[in-house]
Amino acid sequence: MRLILQVITTLVIVAYPLAVYFGLQYLPPGYIALLLCVLLLTRMLVTRQQVRAMVLPLIVGIGLTGASFIAKRNDWLLYYPVVINLSLLGLFSYSLIKGPSMIERLARIKEPDLPDSAIEYLRTITTLWCGLFVFNGAMATYTAIASSIEMWTLYNGLIAYLLIGMLLSGEWIYRRFWLKKHD
Questions:
Q1: Average pLDDT over residues 69-80
Q2: Distances (CA, A) of 99 to 7, 62, 85, 105, 142
Q3: Which pLDDT belongs to residue 49?
Q4: Mutual orientation of helices 118-146 and 160-181 as an angle, nearest 10°?
């Protein structure tokens, strides 16, 4: 049952912009906020030990969706992508300060014996991710404040994911060549 709840809540969080868009279009006022609040709360409860770093954004998301329902302010739902980007920026930035960098940690999952020469490269890539989170956070803020719900959904539900996917896959491919060159 726990696995099923994890899968469902993960899909909803990934599809959050689409859920907000369609919820605002087709559900009575406040229902999408309440539904998202319950799903985020469920997500926090079923993953509390596995994803400690994401507890704060989940709590803020629960606060945003719950407050949105109580205050009947659907526009507050639009700020959750901002929270996620700020949280990831904080997490990645903190890893640059305290080390090892976040990308080094992730790379070592698949390749525990990385050469020492890779450490600085992986720090640079972590910094690049920080830049993407700043850009995505700024765009998420802009679309929440100054654009239509359609543009907000397009950016936060598609374009941001495409940018993340391009950086993730491009860096992974480049790293394969870089590691071979520096072995």
A1: 89
A2: 31, 30, 20, 9, 32
A3: 54
A4: 170
Residue holding tokens 């659907």?
74
Here the tokens at position 131 are 């830049």
One-letter identity of residue 122: L
- Cα separation, 24 vs 141, in Å, equals 19
Query: What radius of gyration, in Å, describes the C-alpha atoms of the chain?
Result: 18
**DSSP structural state of residue 15:** T
Residue range 136-179, pLDDT digits in tens: 999 999 999 999 999 999 999 999 999 999 999 998 888 778 76
DSSP letter at 101 equals -
Q: Are 60 and 79 in contact (CB under 8 A)?
A: no
Q: What is the pLDDT of residues 16-72, one digit of tens each?
A: 899 899 988 888 878 888 888 888 888 888 776 555 666 778 888 888 888 888 988
> Which class for 96: exposed (0-12), middle (13-18), buried (19 or more C-beta within 10 A)?
middle
Q: What SS3 state is found at 97?
A: helix
Rounded CA-CA distance 34/50 in Å is 25
